[in-house]
Amino acid sequence: MNTKDVAPNPAPAGSTGDRGPLERIDLHLIRVLHTVLTEGSVSRAALRLGMHQPAVSAALKRLRDLAGDPLLVRHGAQMVATDAGRRMIEPAASILRTAETLFTEAQRFDPRTSTQRFHIAASDYLDPLFLPHLVADIQRQAPLTRVEIHALTGEADYRAQLAQGEIDLVIGNWLQPPDELHMAHLFSDEVVSLVSHRHPAARRGWSEADWLEAEHIAPMPNYPGARGIIDQVLDERGLQRRIAVRCAYFGLIPQMVADSLLVLTTGRQYCERYARQLPLTILPCPVAMPPLLYYMLWHTRSQHANAARWLRERTRQVISELRTGGPRHPSTPSHKP
Fold this sequence. Notes:
Order of helices and strands: EHHHEEHEHEHEEEHHEHEHEHEEH
CATH topology of the largest domain: Arc Repressor Mutant, subunit A
Number of helices: 12
Number of domains: 3
CATH superfamily of the largest domain: Winged helix-like DNA-binding domain superfamily/Winged helix DNA-binding domain
Distance between the termini: 67 Å
Shape: rod-shaped
CATH architecture of the largest domain: Orthogonal Bundle
Number of strands: 13
Oligomer: single chain
Largest sheet: 5 strands, mixed
Helix content: 25-40%
Strand content: 15-25%
């Protein structure tokens, strides 16, 4: 048996500088290493890799320089791995498996087994059934996930929170949502006024002047000097209403309206939920208002993440069910998209 070893070509002095081995290896070299060693042939490795044979030979030369070993030697009419080469086969395979897992796991999302934590910032001006239904829907379909609901207030910079990954999704209404974020329109809602059954307007109606002079209740501004959407529209038209009460807790306002002569002006869907439970009357707003537009916003960082995409789809689905009279109770199963 005539065995002829192929000696490695030494690297020119100073060709690698002070760089360590790890800095001179990329995943492509590991793939070439594993394929050449398992195929035992440069030509077969080239076919398997979809490369030209000279390119594989050049990569093998680099690998020999790095290893200080020929890695593959001729044995008769065949090529066989050296002892060092054989020891590299399984570690190289492990690296390739890990690399593949690294990028597939980043996108894999199975709601049945995921332990993802979702962070949602939402306006409390939304339909009061929305967040309970959304949380119930997520818990039903992704029982191991965790959900954190954050207030959408002026104290928290939701743009920065989205960019830093502290928030996954923001849901609210804006006259002009920020254009640097990804956005999807969820629904539009008619602006109406909500009054107690005892309010004079509930019996005789009102004019624009009557509405402006009435005692209004409005949410607390998100930050000093902020104007709500209703007042922004009034400002543009040179009008001003009389706000007698401001409240930071939007969910408590309907009860305050029911117990007084205050007027709440907001979206119809929000008002309809409370009008079913309290002695309240919904009246048209005598000042023409554009519809309230509700959006969900998210950052580019989560645009293609499967978990974030799933959350956005669940949000759309729950909104759709509430708008079209779908499942009415959080315990009612919903349809998968």
